[in-house]
Amino acid sequence: MAGTLESVESCLERHIPPEELAEVKRILYGGEARKLSLPAAALSAAQERDFELQGYGFDAEPEQLRRPRIVRVGLIQNKIALPTDTAVSVQVAALHRRIAEIVEVAAKSGVNIVCFQEAWTMPFAFCTREKLPWTEFAESAEDGPTTKFCQELAKKYNMVVISPILERDETHGGTLWNTAVVISSSGAVLGKSRKNHIPRVGDFNESTYYMEGNTGHPVFQTQFGTIAVNICYGRHHPLNWLMFSMNGAEIIFNPSATVGKLSESMWPIEARNAAIANHCFTCPINRVGMEYYKNAFTSGDGGKAHHDLGYFYGSSYVAAPDGSRTPGLSRGRDGLLVVEMDLNLCRQVSDKWNFKMTGRYEMYADKLTEAVQPCFVPNIIKERASH
Amino acid sequence: MAGTLESVESCLERHIPPEELAEVKRILYGGEARKLSLPAAALSAAQERDFELQGYGFDAEPEQLRRPRIVRVGLIQNKIALPTDTAVSVQVAALHRRIAEIVEVAAKSGVNIVCFQEAWTMPFAFCTREKLPWTEFAESAEDGPTTKFCQELAKKYNMVVISPILERDETHGGTLWNTAVVISSSGAVLGKSRKNHIPRVGDFNESTYYMEGNTGHPVFQTQFGTIAVNICYGRHHPLNWLMFSMNGAEIIFNPSATVGKLSESMWPIEARNAAIANHCFTCPINRVGMEYYKNAFTSGDGGKAHHDLGYFYGSSYVAAPDGSRTPGLSRGRDGLLVVEMDLNLCRQVSDKWNFKMTGRYEMYADKLTEAVQPCFVPNIIKERASH
């Protein structure tokens, strides 16, 4: 279980006196995020459907030559809808229904780009190392039932949909990939972005199922902004964020599945650092809840065989290029985070801090090229023996 | 002024009930840092000399083939000792005296490697854009008076000393550099590491005084551990941290000078992200207090000419490779942070998370090499006109 703490942010709100709270928020979160006023119909629908709905906004300075480029993104975090031993097709259908009712509220809230969590149509069953039935959740990125479902949503709501699924690639030997499908607001499949870095940590036995992605760092120019998708463990790799940014991404989504014991203290750091380092918005999303498996598995830690991976702690948030961030969604409930942003902030912060200009990438291209050679000799300075 | 908040950490301690506090600390800081028990003589000397003294420890698992590699680092943050219009040599002498009395306490506290703040012998006068008298603070890294002073400290206490100064390089046309001199516990100058990335942000007009460093990413193998120095603004550049780590650094110091309005919400993020991403310890140090200049200067922000850069907020801390960190020193007082660490933790965390193994550096070396070409075409996917 995620324990009793709903979120760090709500705990600070409850206990710290207002005058100190403002300072704490300034230092910890870059200030008080502006609250969005969301339509009553959206708020009541969220309550009825039992999910949290929060809205925040990031502003930019007015410019002379560019209008504000306002976009609303929606981040959805959710539990699986049915037990993991339910028939595959029934589980998928239940998740489609759940997401459809949350996306409807996103539309009411004015969301332009929505992103679901990693492998959102399935339990995160890679801990089991079993192939069946879990690989049956894999679908074609181009025309699988989930992509078709998302295309309908996109057209219905004029919304860009990012749908991270387990992909079956029939044109390349039926291989599996961990893939985000990006669907334009017109309903067209714009393209896909495969997970670039695959974990071998704890129970995240994903390397048993699929390989490092081969789609590079594509950036998608949508009606609402230039976006990219850095899937889950790619969050830990600063170079992965950097290359999405080099290709022009202003918003980088990070659909994830990660558990409390492993990564909860790293979660507030990494995506936010990426927003700062790359002068862009980042949107980390984590699922919530516990997922139980019929067959026990071990964790390579000397512990007993068990039936779950631990709790997914939610806490989805948005980080801005200026070092600020929104509060996170809760650690245990389904939720929709609606964040309005003026994309002009990216270039404004870039012109202020100049990390791209001062980045000395030529030097690093050379140094990395050297460092990966088998004959690489690290630059280590030792004390001379004479001393 | 730094305001009324001594530090975020002390504010949380005061207001949040114990059972919730433990959870908050786990999520925000990776848990409760182990407190070091420091000698009474050190604690009383610190009190007498009016500086904060805090001690924490990070542990690692026992291994069969390696003994624990325990090292104690000391981070010193301080105000300037005299007004900025005092004679240069008098200011330097006063700072030498102040540091000597803090280092003596570091020695009593068992510190093996001590690091001072950026350009520690001078006010951070680059905001003024005046050349005299500020460039007179520059010294030879190899045999300047400050290096000699540090060599004496090193020998006296068997301590590695990292001394970040404004360097005058007489053998290359008398150029200036922002340089950390690394002095072995034997008293020998092991080498130097120049600031790789130079800011052009706010009042940090350092590019008026010196250029991007040309010493690369040297790592120093000392008696107590393999260390590197990433100076100040290099903190914002993930590739800078990465190359120090690629060369084998287990502890990366980050002597800095940065002010509240500019960077305080980024401070807890960047060095900590670097510790996580590179499986090493990072040690960011920031000076404290206000520094007033006789001649007013403007800030390029439409505001009135004024006499200070704003307040330096201290808050020096140590981040560990496992995502945890110590509390910070205070936001306004001189201080010494003593942190004991078992360097075996670096490889243990690396073997757990495998960021180096999964980093795909060959791919990034190629991609960066492409990205820096004038003819680089970003990988942007647009909707086809037919839709």
Secondary structure topology:
2 copies of one chain form a homodimer.
Chain A: H1 8-15, H2 18-29, E1 34-35, H3 40-48, E2 52-58, E3 70-77, H4 88-108, E4 113-115, H5 145-157, E5 160-169, E6 175-183, E7 189-194, E8 219-222, E9 225-229, H6 238-246, E10 251-256, H7 260-263, H8 267-278, E11 281-286, E12 288-289, E13 292-297, E14 306-308, E15 312-313, E16 335-342, H9 344-353, H10 361-371, E17 380-382
Parallel strand pairs in A: 2-16, 3-4, 4-5, 9-10, 10-11
Antiparallel strand pairs in A: 1-2, 3-16, 5-6, 6-7, 8-9, 12-15, 13-14
Helix pairs in contact in A: 3-4, 4-5, 6-8
Largest beta sheet of chain A, briefly? 8 strands, mixed
Largest inter-chain contact set? A-B, 91 and 90 residues
What's the CATH first level of chain A? Alpha Beta
Query: Strand arrangement, largest sheet of chain A?
Result: 1-2-16-3-4-5-6-7
Count of separate structural domains of chain A? 1
| Proportion of residues in β-strands of chain A | 15-25%
Assembly state of the chains shown:
homodimer
Distance between the termini of chain A: 58 Å
Give a verbal description of the structure.
- 2 copies of one chain form a homodimer.
- Chain A is an alpha/beta fold and 387 residues long.
- Chain A has a single domain, classed as Nitrilase/N-carbamoyl-D-aminoacid amidohydrolase (4-Layer Sandwich), CATH 3.60.110.
- The first copy, chain A, has 10 helices and 17 strands.
- Chain A has helices spanning 8-15, 18-29, 40-48, 88-108, 145-157, 238-246, 260-263, 267-278, 344-353, 361-371, and strands at 34-35, 52-58, 70-77, 113-115, 160-169, 175-183, 189-194, 219-222, 225-229, 251-256, 281-286, 288-289, 292-297, 306-308, 312-313, 335-342, 380-382.
- In chain A, the strands form 4 sheets. The first copy, chain A, has an 8-stranded mixed sheet with strand order 1-2-16-3-4-5-6-7, with helices on both faces. The first copy, chain A, has a 4-stranded mixed sheet with strand order 8-9-10-11, covered by helices on one side. In chain A, strands 12-15 form a two-stranded antiparallel ribbon.
- In chain A, helix 3 (40-48) runs antiparallel to helix 4 (88-108) and helix 6 (238-246) runs parallel beside helix 8 (267-278).
- The radius of gyration of chain A is 21 Å and the shape is globular.
- The N and C termini of chain A lie far apart (58 Å).
- The mean pLDDT of chain A is 97.
- The interface between A and B is large, with 91 and 90 residues.
- Chains A, B: It is found in: Cytoplasm.
- Chains A, B: This is Beta-ureidopropionase.
- Chains A, B: One of its GO terms (cellular component) is cytosol.
